[in-house]
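Handout, page 2. Input:
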Amino acid sequence: MDKVLIRQLRVDTVIGVYDWEKKIQQSLFLDLDMAWDNKPAAMGDDYQFALCYETVSKRITQLITEQPIELIETVAERVAECLLGEFNVAWVKVVVMKPGAVATAASVGVEIERSQPTSVES
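Output:
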């Protein structure tokens, strides 16, 4: 399986469950692994068949910052849904890290994997 990867995408947003968190912006860092057939783009050196990581990065940033979110679990699910629905990737792994959320840890986070639903023929 080919993949397109984005590492450490920094998104500054309002995130958290505590009142003080709802008044500030904090940084999230995302790692995205997206299943994508890279061969058509590579064979013809043709951008139109590539999954544009700049477009993906901008859309994910917009998605996360358009409204306050309390949980990084919610961020991960919304990002996965967006990538599967809007970009039609077959499978995605989303890692969301929130540095500084726990004083004794460098960062905390969640990781999810999601894929397109498979249709069952009767």
